[in-house]
Design a protein that fits this description.
Blueprint (H helix, E strand, L loop, with lengths): L25 H14 L3 E5 L4 H6 L13 E6 L7 E5 L10
Antiparallel strand pairs: 1-2, 2-3
Bound molecules: zinc ion.
Zinc ion binds next to α2.
Amino acid sequence: MMWPGEYFKRSEFACKCGCGFDTVDAELLAILVNLRRHYGQPITIHSGCRCQKHNKAVGGVINSQHLIGRAADVTVKKCGPKNRIRILMHHIQRQIRI
Ligand SMILES: [Zn+2]
């Protein structure tokens, strides 16, 4: 399948522990692409996919959406590092918490 991320590299979503888990939910990716277009600013992904081990290491909740590639912690450059946005797929109705 073609990678539809356009502004993002698949590797940006990869689990930080190096296990290689980088399966991102297509809908999450579409939201990020829209967000990128909306702001016209680079978006940094701080945490995308997480395996069980890494999720535990960073204190993630047991049923974290990061485990299934359906959550991403990001910052938009323009908004500064303090405004970290967490996008959770089960809050998909535009409930983006800032
Ligand atoms: Zn991992």
